[in-house]
Amino acid sequence: MIDFDNGEVFKLKPDDDYAEKVQGLLLDDEEVLGAYKSMRDGIVFTNKRLIAVNVQGITGRKKAFTSLPYRTIVAFAVETAGTLDLDCELELSYSSLGNVKFEFKGAVPIDAIAKSIAIHSLH
Q: Which InterPro entries match (predicted)?
């Protein structure tokens, strides 16, 4: 399991190519909505869940995947970018896992991400 308490793990930038890392895990009716990466680690939003990827080892061939289904989210919060603080944040609360927080750098459609999570978690 990825250590989500480590704030340095997920400072993310958009990277559509990062979605390739989770292609083998996707269900037949699952589609990628967005992909973001930090130095090596990243997250991929699908229409059913968020998949966190922890790239391990010197070569990066070993990866740990954590699947966080939207249906198990009990609450979530977003913080939009400001004038001086250009970062935005997403915090998800899971009943069994606790809080998971992601910080995004650059131009990220945080409103669209929040809307997608709401659509898929509030059924």
A: PHb (IPR012544), PHb_sf (IPR037063)
**CB neighbour list of residue 2: distance below 8 Å, 6 or more residues apart:** 9, 41, 52, 54, 64, 66
End-to-end CA distance of the chain: 27
Type of residue at 7: G
100-33-90 Cα angle (round to 5): 25
Cα 72–chain centre separation: 15
pTM: 0.85
Quick one: pLDDT at residue 4? 62
Is 60:18 a contact under the CB 8 Å cutoff?
A: no
Tokens representing 95 are: 């009943």
Q: Which amino acid makes up residue 32?
A: V
Per-residue pLDDT at 112 exceeds 80: yes
Cα 50 to chain centroid, rounded = 5
Q: Kindly list the structural domains of the chain, giving each domain's residue range(s) and its CATH number in brackets, ordered by start.
A: 11-121 (2.30.29.50)
